[in-house]
Amino acid sequence: MTTTTPLLVAVDGSSAASAAIRYAAQEAKRLETGLQLVHVVPNYLPISPMMPLSPSDLDAPAMKILRRAAKQARTLLGSEKVTATLLHGPRVATLVDLADDVPLVVIGSQQRPAFERLVTGSTLVGLASRAKSPVVGVPDHWMPGEPHHRIVVGIRSAAEAPDLVRRALETGEALGASVVLLHAWELPSEYDDLLVTHGDREEWNARAHRDIDSVLAVVQAAHPDVQVEVRVVHGQPARVLQVASRDADLLLLSRRRRAFPVGHLGGTGRALLHHAACPVEIVAPVAEPLETPQPGSRAGREPVEVN
Q1: 3: which residues sit within 8 A by CB, 6+ positions away?
Q2: Cβ distance 119 to 268 under 8 Å?
Q3: Judging by DSSP bridges, how do beta strands 135-139 and 105-109 pair with one another?
Q4: Cα 77 to the chain's mean position, in Å?
Q5: 286: buried, middle or exposed (CB in 10 Å: 19+, 13-18, 0-12)?
Q6: Domain UspA spans what residues (predicted)?
Q7: Is residue 248 within 8 Å of residue 278, measured between CB atoms?
Q8: Residue 109, exposed/middle/buried by CB under 10 A (0-12, 13-18, 19+)?
Q9: Can you identify the CATH homologous superfamily of domain 150-283?
Q10: How far apart (Å, rounded) are the C-alpha atoms in residues 255 and 144?
Q11: Which pLDDT score is estimated for 84?
């Protein structure tokens, strides 16, 4: 596969940004394209009045960050394949605008405590939640090495799976990797215990397996040489997928379809962006979902009164 549009890489001077550059350079070589490095100086600085600063005061350190990132990228890819741009504005909105027409957006995933992310926010999550192009979050420890030749795909529902499975098979074919379609489910504890006790877990697993197989049957014809495994696991989805990411080269997830034009990134996606062992690619929903009611949905159900 070849593309003339460079990949977009958001950099901030962190170790995670260095990992993102390493991953993006590897992908750029595979896709025979270049890299566009971007550092965005925020237009709002939440600091004390005793330390007054304006965004322009950050230009000098910002340029230092960008030059360091450009040097790393050019060492890996060549000077002619790398551009570096300094921008000012709201970080997430600026990057989302730039991501409209690029084949891939790459950004580092800094392993920070949950409370710190709650207080400071996360450019990674904001970008992955809103960008129209696929966004890859790269763990700060990621290094190129011997591949596992395995892509794991988190399947939330069969209705939302076709675009995600199609992209996984395309990527698997390009990388010579097998694809694992993994659906993990767990009900709230008071219901989950009852299901396990009454042996309904096997029936639920079999039904989910059939739903995924039906999607695969439509999509796989275009990629017959890609080895695919379907797994249905009873367990907390984020935990199951995090474990699966330990021996994968890439974890693929899709944003949920909601009223918003580009979908919504749920709790599982947010958790895995920060804690997966491998790079995580978030794919925006494209086509309208199939009209397939999910177990426990309100479709076709009447209220039940309990005396």
Answers
A1: 31, 32, 33, 103
A2: no
A3: parallel
A4: 24
A5: middle
A6: 6-138, 149-283
A7: yes
A8: buried
A9: HUPs (3.40.50.620)
A10: 27
A11: 96
- Integer Cα distance of 84 and 208 in angstroms: 46
Distance CA 205, CA 207 (A): 5
Tokens of 248: 């994968």
Please say whether the beta carbons of 130 and 281 come within 8 A: no
Mean pLDDT confidence for 183-201:
70
Superfamily of domain 7-139: HUPs (3.40.50.620)
| SS3 assignment for the chain | CCCCCCEEEECCCCHHHHHHHHHHHHHHHHHCCCEEEEEEECCCCCCCCCCCCCHHHHHHHHHHHHHHHHHHHHHHHCHHHEEEEEEECCHHHHHHHHHHHCCCEEEEECCCCHHHHHHHCCHHHHHHHHCCCCEEEEECCCCCCCCCCEEEEECCCHHHCHHHHHHHHHHHHHHCCEEEEEEEECCCHHHHHHHHHCCHHHHHHHHHHHHHHHHHHHHHHHCCCCCEEEEEEECCHHHHHHHHHHHCCEEEEECECCCCCCCECCHHHHHHHHHCCCCEEEECCCCCCCCCCCCCCCCCCCCCCCC
Nearest in space to 132 (alpha carbons), one of 169, 170, 105: 105
Would you place residue 221 in the very low, low, confident or very high pLDDT band (cuts 50, 70, 90)?
very high
The region that residue 121 occupies, defined by phi over 0 for left and psi between -120 and 50 for alpha, beta otherwise, is left
Question: Could you tell me where in the chain the CATH 3.40.50.620 domains are found?
Answer: 7-139, 150-283
Token pair 């960050």: residue: 65
**What is the C-alpha separation between 188 and 180, in angstroms, rounded?**
26
- Tokens 């551009």 found at: 83
Span 243-261, average pLDDT: 84
pLDDT of residue 195: 59
